[in-house]
Design a protein that fits this description.
The chain is of the alpha/beta class. Helix content is 42%, strand content 13%. The N and C termini lie far apart (51 Å). The N terminus is likely disordered.
Length: 264
């Protein structure tokens, strides 16, 4: 593993002097810099140029260990990419939280309305917005030349040694788009000592090689529409390939559970 001096991408002077030309609005620049000034010392990046090299569209796929990542990782990617947003999928309730919601909205995330609201009025709002297609929103951002950020595990996973099974939604986004997938492993050096992912701790981002999925996309175009099972299997193969890349980058093992066969 490279020495920390070669990984760090967020020194104080670099944050203060960064122009972030792609991020409109002085207030948004200040907010992004404030996040990294407050917590940037926790972040290190191996091969930051690999994250800068993809202008878009591209899908960044990352493993997910704690709640703080939902704020720090999008901020880090935006900073490294000159302020260009990375549209992460995000729980809608977090986006409406005081202060935190404003910071999360810096990257113009795509809200996911799966979880019920904690209050009645909010539940009415959620049910109305739940009709909106997350898949369509993701594809629209990619078609416009923008970037997505996805945690394919679908939830926080505090296990220091194993990845959760990746969810199939990422596979369908890949099959319906042309954007490459760049896996980014999130690794906590303290996890092995603690026996869990820390709630707050030093975090290393490791970018992998872009995955293009030319073969899978070509196969998807020729699948008969009356055989959705074959498409689901193809999407599953895409997701498992992404997760296997994250296995190497995150230092966690990945053992996808086999699909349960339905009784005849």
């Amino acid at each position: 593993m490279p020495a920390p001096a070669h990984r760090s991408a967020f020194p104080l002077t670099a944050i203060l002097l960064a122009e972030l030309p792609a991020l409109t609005g002085g207030g948004r620049r200040l907010a992004l810099k404030a996040v990294l000034l407050g917590a940037g010392r926790l972040l290190a990046v191996e091969d930051a140029e690999a994250l800068r090299a993809h202008p878009g569209p591209v899908i960044f796929a990352l493993n997910h260990g704690n709640a703080l990542e939902a704020l720090l990782v999008p901020a880090a990617l935006m900073f490294l990419r000159g302020g260009r947003p990375v549209h992460f999928l995000a729980d809608w309730m977090y986006l409406h939280a005081p202060l935190l919601g404003g910071l999360l909205r810096l990257g113009e995330p795509i809200p996911v309305f799966a979880k019920p609201a904690l209050w009645r009025l909010g539940e009415t709002y959620r049910r109305q917005r739940r009709r909106e297609s997350v898949l369509a929103a993701c594809l629209a951002r990619l078609a416009a030349g923008n970037c997505l950020g996805i945690f394919p595990e679908g939830t926080r996973n505090p296990d220091p040694g194993k990845l959760l099974r990746g969810r199939g939604g990422l596979g369908e986004i890949v099959l319906q788009s042309t954007a490459p997938v760049v896996p980014v492993g999130l690794h906590y050096p303290a996890a092995s000592r603690l026996g869990r992912i820390p709630s707050v701790g030093r975090l290393v981002l490791r970018a992998g090689d872009a995955l293009t999925f030319h073969t899978e996309r070509q196969a998807a175009r020729h699948l008969p529409p009356k055989l959705p099972r074959l498409r689901r299997e193809l999407a599953r193969a895409v997701v498992d390939q992404v997760m296997q890349s994250l296995e190497t980058l995150s230092g966690k093992s990945y053992h996808p559970q086999p699909q349960k066969r339905r009784a005849a």
